[in-house]
Amino acid sequence: MDPTVVSALASCVSASAALSAIVVSVIVYRGQSALTTAQSKLSKEIHEEQSKLSLKIHENQILLSQRQLLIPLWEYISKVDRIDPSLPVTPDVLKVVNTLELVALCTEGGMVDTQVIKRTFGQVFLELYDQVHACQPLPGLNKSGPDLLRENRAAMSFYKELSSDDMNRDKLANKIS
Question: Nearest to residue 154, comparing CAs of 89, 112, 99, 113?
Fold first, then answer.
């Protein structure tokens, strides 16, 4: 065989091999690109699901810690004596006012679950507040019940919120049947 023909055939085979390598490289690149895109999309979905799960776990932990404070508040509020506005006992009135402020501050500060507090203590809170509010000047203190309550803004604010909830509880506009 003529050496020129052999050289030409070898060049053709080399060119074919190089062209085949280029075609294979393009196919692999396109496949790799699709895999990279799919992997990126899957990675993003996993990240979003992990974020949602982490947020849900965090919210549940907050709710659990808020509800753990319910028992100490329960013990505290159950130990206060009811007030007779016509014969108020100053230390008892002060203890009630301080208890109302404590419950209101815990609620306002997010330390306790507001809905649980409203359901558990709402009616008692309203009754105690009204009893203190009805007290005239307290013996040895020279302040009335309303004076003490004005000094405890968190209790006043929570009372207004509870009163509003109580007034709107059975409104027809709130019921869709």
Answer: 99
Model confidence pLDDT, tens digit, residues 155-168 = 999 999 999 988 88
Which pairs count as long-range contacts for 23-31, CB under 8 Å and 24+ apart, including other chains? none
- The token duo for 75 is 């013990």
**Inter-residue contact 145 to 96 (CB < 8 Å):** no
**pTM, two decimal places:** 0.66
What is the DSSP code (8-state) at residue 83?
Answer: P
How many other C-beta atoms lie within 10 A of the C-beta of residue 165? 12
Angle at which helix 70-78 crosses helix 90-108, to 10 degrees, equals 160
pLDDT(32) > 70: yes
Domain ranges of the chain: 1-66, 69-172
Place of tokens 């004005």: 150
Which tokens is 123 given?
Answer: 């009616």
SS (H, E, C) 47-71: HHHHHHHHHHHHHHHHHHHHHHCHH
pLDDT per residue over 80-103, tens digit each?
989 999 999 999 999 999 999 999
